Amino acid sequence: MVTILAGNECTGKSTCFVHLRDIVENSQAVDCLFIKESHTDSELEKFGRVSYIRELVANNQAALFDRATMLDDLVYNPITDNKQSQLINEQTKEWYVDTLKQCQIIFFECSLDTIKQRLSQRGDEYIDESQLEQIRQGYEAIFEQYGLEPIRINVDGLSEQEVVEKVMEVLRW
Fold it and tell me: Is 172 helix (H, G, I), strand (E, B) or coil?
């Protein structure tokens, strides 16, 4: 199963990803690829990433993504670049949405106050506080528009370990 950790900035996705990777590497009890995609503006590379996910799904390969361009591009492009993602058009929409539906999405939810506090501690310059609600709404709109049903984990008040344990329960590890 291909699993994507998704959610707003500073909800703990990357921290959870690192803990899970460390647990698996130390125990070797789980056969899973750990993939952390970096930002790219290349449409060709973005399509290649979606093709790679389709290949993983077709081969029944377990993979955990700390974010995935495939989903984040749809949410962030309208906010940060003032344009719609080029990944979905009339020719690719069915292929793209089918790929998303074959993935398990774990959506990290958190209050805006908590996110703002974490963001100020992180000192992120890419996203500002005014965009946080837009990002939350963007994910919700994409989930609704494409009929995606993420597994939601509210991380407010949870320790890093508690978040990891919840994700491990979802993954059945």
Answer: coil
Separation in Å, CA 69 to CA 17, 108, 113, 129, 130: 16, 16, 26, 22, 22
pLDDT tens for each residue of 129-148: 788 899 999 999 999 999 99
Structure tokens at 105: 């999405």
Q: Are 37 and 44 in contact (CB under 8 A)?
A: no
Helix axis angle for 69-76 and 93-101, nearest 10°, is 120
**Global pTM value:** 0.91
| Cβ neighbourhood burial of 139 (10 Å; 0-12, 13-18, 19+) | buried
The tokens 């789980």 sit on which residue?
Answer: 30
Residue 45 buriedness (CB in 10 A; 0-12 / 13-18 / 19+): exposed
